Amino acid sequence: MKTIAVLIADTHEYNPFCKWATENGAENFEENGMRMLKMTFCGDRLVAMLSNTGKVNAAIAATHLILKYGAEEIYNIGFSGAVKGVRRGDLVAGSSCTECDFDLTPLGYELGEKPDQKYVYETDPELLELCKEQNLYIGALGTGDMFLTSNEKKADFHRRFGICAFDMESGAIASVCDRYGVKSLSIRKISDDSEETASEDYRAMNKSEEMGLTDTLIALLIKKYNG
């Protein structure tokens, strides 16, 4: 039996998944102050965790899921701000993830570049093929510990990294998974245009607790494990 993990950052993003899982026999519990659930899914074990927002929280959660639960794949769902080529309501599967706010430029490195290690994390091609079958938009994701509302930063991040959307967790999750040899995939719904109205647009979509991301992930997992 393998372990599949789902990592979700925000309470309003987690609640729809939790509702689906609970209705399908999941056990809900808390561990180290974090909401979690576990269940049997397609003959395997599925574990989900509410990490809370940001790169540090996401990295802690991903490491916990790998070291304690033996997660062999980690799936991340949540909302993202549009950067280029996508718009509010679109569903995006990350073809790669980069920490855009990692900055050693005063030392002569490029923005995002980590000395002596990988810093653009590519998603497993098999997982991307499943995303294409689900008609998801495939594009590069950027991550940073900020809520992006600047047109200037959007343009700069797209120019440097070619990203279509920006969030606060996917790059950190991908970094941890790459270190431990675990496959990961981030699926993000575009909640705002990363501009002046971004916070209002994000809050409106977030508070609705709609099931779109959960339904998309479950359909993908059923396709992968039940074929």
For the termini, the CA-CA separation is: 17 Å
User: Please, what is the average pLDDT?
Assistant: 92
Uncertain stretches of 5 or more adjacent residues = none
Q: How are the strands of the biggest sheet laid out side by side?
A: 5-9-8-6-10
The structural domain count equals 1
Q: Total number of β-strand segments?
A: 10
Helix content: 25-40%
Total helical segments: 7
What kind of sheet is the major sheet? Answer: 5 strands, mixed, barrel
CATH uppermost class = Alpha Beta
CATH fold-type name: Rossmann fold
Question: Which structural class is indicated by helix and strand composition?
Answer: alpha/beta
Instruction: Find the CATH superfamily.
Output: Nucleoside phosphorylase domain
- Range of strand content: 25-35%
Reading the helices and strands in chain order gives EHEEEHEEEHEHEHEHH
Radius of gyration: 17 Å
Structure summary:
This protein is α/β, with parallel strands linked by helices and 227 residues long. The protein is 37% helix and 30% strand.
